Amino acid sequence: MHDRRHSAASRAARRLAAAAALALAWAHGAELSLTRPGGGGLPAEVTAGYVAVRVDTGEDASVTLFRLHPGVDRAAFEAAVGATGADGDFVAALNAALDLVDVVLEVGARAGVPASAGAVLAPGEYALAYQSLSEEGPAAATTYAYVTAVPGAGDAPPDVVGTVHADEFLFALPAGLAAGEQTWAVTNVGGQLHNMVLFRLDAGATAADLRAWLLGGGGPPPATEAGVVGLFGPGETVYQTLDLAPGAYVAACFVPHHGPGGDGAPHFQHGMLQPFTVGD
Length: 280
Description:
Helix content: 10-25%
Radius of gyration: 18 Å
Low-confidence stretches: 1-29
Shape: globular
Structural class: mainly beta
Strand content: 35-45%
């Protein structure tokens, strides 16, 4: 299990400032499939509607999908996003980047374990950023690719078991969740970026135990990571498929507080640590 106690600010910066060579290929249906670092190509256009981003490059990697605001220059966008990984005031750099783009979704994959997430794309210009990861952080330089979503009869999103709402600073999850493979719609109804990491608690462990461990408490972790919904911005809905066993869970957000008066502390420290139960 990845140690979630290291700097939340540096993690969010790494995920926003994606790195490495893009390997994008147009796959069946509405899917952008990344299959190898350093090769492939991205179509110039896709039809607006539901699009999934799939990452299977054989390495630990993260891909972030951005929607550029109208009139934003690509070079200015790349410079602003890159600045979130530099030394200095991270919260200010992040908010400067968010003046230029919306963060639609993020997909993180581990070597040999493909991952995907989807969203409904409105017409506009989008950028994908691929980040090759190591234990120390980004493993290569940043590369971006661009695609335009054009009006048309695009695909509809998949059926879901329920909708999760993310706000400052809480998750609202549907009741009656059952075990098995399922797709959630996760909607950001707040004013900041969010992500959602799911932990399955060990027998007898509590959300308070997990919080204490995340803040640096000693001993073994009281939970196992069970799923991740990557970064997504205000107003965005991410469609994420999860495979959950029965048990007690906690949903946590690790994005730094970057709203008015933001202190840069991860959102879970402000209360975004929500227990829930998955039944048989």
